[in-house]
Each structure stands twice: as structure tokens, then as C-alpha cells.
Amino acid sequence: AGRAAVRAAPPAKAAVVKPARRGPSARALAVRAAAGDSCELDNFQRVSVLAEALPYLQRFAGQTVVVKYGGAAMTDESLKDRVIKDLVLLSTVGIRPILVHGGGPEINGWLKKVGIEPKFLNGLRVTDAATMEIVEMVLVGKVNKSLVSLINCAGGRAVGMCGKDGNTLRGKIKNPELGFVGDVTSVDTAVLSQLVSSGHVPVVATVAMDESGQALNVNADTAAGELAASIGAAKLILMTDVPGVCTDKDDAGTLIRELTINESRDLVGDGVIAGGMIPKVECCVKSIAQGVKSAHIIDGRAPHSLLLEILTDEGAGTMITG
Description:
Layout: H1 26-34, H2 43-60, E1 64-69, H3 72-75, H4 77-92, E2 96-101, H5 104-113, E3 120-121, E4 124-125, H6 129-153, E5 158-162, E6 169-173, E7 181-187, H7 190-197, E8 201-205, E9 207-209, E10 215-218, H8 220-231, E11 235-240, E12 258-260, H9 261-269, H10 277-289, E13 294-299, H11 305-311, E14 318-321
Helix pairs in contact: 1-2, 5-6, 8-10, 9-10
């Protein structure tokens, strides 16, 4: 994120890093305004918000930011509206966002409509041929085009695509027991590069294909990380339904704001990072090892968390760096 200065990193045993207490920051003022705080911003406070954002607007102008979009921010209409407008704002000021999405709830809904019971193995969707047909139909045909329409209606220039288009994502079957669930084997960013360089916002559905052309269902976090590394993104941002990495997953006050790769691995080994957070952190670590400058796990339920992460001193969620 845009952190004004790198704060002391947490010890290996995951002591909690909390920002120093100051007067109301631009971040705090923005959050209060977004939440409808009765204390409205005066003109000076509005200017302060813009002044704090300026260095980050300058730093990231022309830089690519890959955003994995999912969780409640994708199903709650008010949250979706904010995320879409935030993406358009970033694009308008010269930052180059790429939106990568899954669509779990939508897929489950359509499977139910056609009488297919969703099945999962170790948290991954078992994708037989019939399920894969629904996955591709929903992700590429419905969810993707819906997001494209929303971005364009908000003033952006979105183009929808999936991993098959332009050979963007090639893959292989991850585990025969999972069916057509894929691991990414190669990435071609030619189409994405052309789109972002011309001011468009690519919206990527995570359906890849193997050497025979068979569609594969690829985890959206994994796909976003691979795309970010291949295109040389300045940031990878994973939008989730948690504040970030916390020493106590049930207490947002234990949020760890900054981690290195080694500290992240230590926390996994110590069991502090566990469950569904492990693959997200591993995705971030891998992308950084492949050249992404920083990776972030943020709470998509928080108003304007995307802008807060990129354009403020404190950022949002957990930042992982090399």
C-alpha cells in the first residue's frame, strides 16, 4: 500500500503491528464520510484527503494493479457499486487496474437450478464435465459481462475476457479426483498489455484451457497471482471477507499490517496463518517471488478499501513484501 514509511516489521512470532495514533488521518476521514458519519467533511478536510493521495497518484500512474474480486463485495450490491466506482476512479487517474474474478455463489445458484449438487474436496470445487459447462457459462457469459456493463456504465472502458482468450491462461488438470480443476502452466499477457496501455480495464474470468482446448476451472486467487507476476504488476490485491492477516482470526484488532515473505512463512509454520488464509498468503508470496512489488489482502466489505490501500499512508489490510 501506500505506506508513508515502512513501520517496524512484526517479530517472527507475530506480535501485532498497530499504526501510531495520530489525529484524524485522511484515511479516517474518508472512512467516516463513506460510512455516512454525521460529522461531514469540511473543505479543508476534503483537500487533506486529496493532498495525501497525490504522491500515490504520481507513484502509481501508468502502473498495473491486479485486483482479485470476490467475497461479499461481489454479492452485496452496495459494496459492488463502490468497488466498481473505485476501479473507474483508478483508471481515470492513470492507474491501470486489471480485475480478476471468480463467481462461486452464482455458480452454486445455477448448479441448483439445473439439478446438480455442488461437491467440494479440501475446499476445492469438484468439477465434472457437466459442472464445468455451468462454470464456464456463468463465469464467462454472465458474471463477466455483468461486471463489464457496470464498469462501462460508471464511466470506465471495460473489456471482458477469460483465460482462453489470446491464450492468456493455459493449464493442466490439478488432480483427477477434482475433475476439470486446473493449475496454470503458462501465461500470455499480450492481450492484457494492449488493453491496459490503451486505457481499458480488462475483466478476466478465470477459465483456462489445456493443450486440447478443454476448459479448466482455475482458482481466482491463483490466476490473479500468475497474471500479476507475468505482467509485472506493481501490486496484487486480494479482496476477501476478512480484515487481513490477524493473530486472532476473530479479532480485527490483531491485524498485522505488514509482513515479509519470511515472516509469512513463519506464521504459517506456527499455525497463526491457518485454514483458508494459507492459500491466499501463499499466492501473495509466490507472486512477490516472481517480481510483483507488493501483495495485499484487504477486506472487501470495508467501504473504499481498494482506494484506501493504494492512495493513503496507512493503507488497508495486510501488505506482504519481499
